[in-house]
Write a structure and sequence with these properties.
By secondary structure, the protein is an alpha/beta fold. It has twelve helices and eight strands. It has an eight-stranded mixed beta sheet, with helices on both faces. Helix 6 links the parallel strand 5 and strand 6. Bound molecules: acetoacetyl-coenzyme A and nicotinamide-adenine-dinucleotide (NAD). Acetoacetyl-coenzyme A binds next to helix 2, helix 8 and helix 10.
């Protein structure tokens, strides 16, 4: 199952990073978003990352141009789906939205195409069930920032075929990543472990135990985390953090996963972290 052409759905922080990393690995990439503004923003982010690599002497200007030349931006899902060997969906963390995208992809993509989701926590088996090719649906969970982080969690849905798993594992390696196999349970491994820690850090602020700065200092200097949990929550996006906590809470039915009310409040206020300019911290 050779994968030459991939399509990435959603040009947000994850989709743009996946598109960049795929193009740097020599793949032809089609990047789609639903509107011109987010598509352009995604392309600008990719250009910015590559220009930084040029300035650091890691790649030449010609290499940067070749990578950019392998990324085809489009606004229509039909165009992205038509010739793809593999599609990686990276739209918002919401089952209804993802199900709608997968239903359309199932109709539009070639029969051999693998449909992967970059979901942080939603059940792959449930996403697969809206298609007529559940054996070709799989989770391919990249970490943020994609060009830097080595891990790809590869999630087997209940019906994912072995050859599909093998093809995706191979592709992750080609993209310079280390694939780790996990089964399909809420939050998989990464967010089952990470997100309750972030949620607990938010509770510490909510209950007045310490300021966000103090909580982050404790975890950075005391536990050697590269970013404190609240800086990381702002970086991931507080809306995404809340979606993930809700999926853990609903999926396990255990009160230990209840999202902190302060997280809900910030998301309701539109304080989504770095991407909206304000979260636990403010950004330019
Ligand atoms: N995009 C691309 N490259 C980036 C980047 C970005 N947003 N941010 C930093 N980099 C690159 C820099 O260019 C630099 O590259 P070189 O080594 O080639 O110079 C390298 O990363 C290190 O950057 P800095 O020296 O500026 O900063 P740093 O040492 O603080 O590292 C970091 C930045 C890698 C982001 C680091 O802070 C880190 O590892 N943070 C934690 C990230 C993390 O936990 N990610 C997982 C989030 S959870 C998730 O993704 C799953 C989910 O479903 C929510
Ligand atoms: P984001 O908000 O930065 O980007 C989402 C993009 O999808 C936006 O540009 C939006 O316009 C686009 N979009 C929405 N609906 C669409 C549709 N129907 N068709 C085409 N484009 C559409 O979000 P993100 O942080 O990139 O997260 C995307 C996915 O990746 C989520 O499932 C998230 O859980 C997952 N994820 C996020 C992180 C993280 O740290 N942020 C890490 C790993 C996985």
């Amino acid at each position: 199952m050779e994968i030459k052409r991939i399509s990435v759905i959603g040009a947000g922080q994850m989709g743009s990073g996946i598109a960049q990393t795929g193009a740097q690995a020599g793949l032809d990439v089609t990047l789609v978003d639903m509107a011109e503004a987010p598509l352009q923003k995604g392309l600008e982010r990719i250009k910015g990352n590559l220009q930084r690599d040029v300035q650091k002497g890691k790649i030449s200007v010609q290499e940067m141009e070749a990578v950019l030349g392998r990324i085809r931006p489009v606004l229509k899902l039909e165009e992205a789906a038509a010739e793809a060997d593999l599609v990686i969906e990276a739209v918002v963390e919401n089952m209804e939205v993802k199900a709608d995208v997968f239903r359309k992809l199932d109709v539009l993509c070639p029969k051999h195409a693998i449909l992967a989701s970059n979901t942080s926590s939603l059940p792959i088996t449930e996403i697969a069930a809206v298609t007529k090719r559940p054996e070709k649906v799989i989770g391919m969970h990249f970490m943020n920032p994609v060009p830097v982080m080595k891990l790809v969690e590869v999630i087997r849905g209940l019906q994912t075929a072995d050859e599909v798993f093998a093809a995706v594992e191979q592709l992750a390696k080609r993209m310079g990543k280390v694939p780790v196999e996990v089964n399909d349970f809420p939050g998989f491994v990464s967010n089952r472990v990470l997100m309750p820690m972030i949620n607990e850090a938010i509770y510490a602020v909510y209950e007045g135990v310490a300021t966000p700065e103090a909580v982050d200092q404790v975890m950075k200097l005391g536990m050697n985390h590269p970013m404190g949990p609240l800086t990381l929550a702002d970086f991931i996006g507080l809306d995404t953090c809340l979606y993930i906590m809700e999926i853990l809470y609903e999926g396990f039915g255990d009160s230990k996963y209840r999202p902190c009310p302060l997280l809900r409040k910030y998301v309701k206020a539109g304080w989504l972290g770095r991407k909206s300019g304000r979260g636990f911290y403010t950004y330019e």
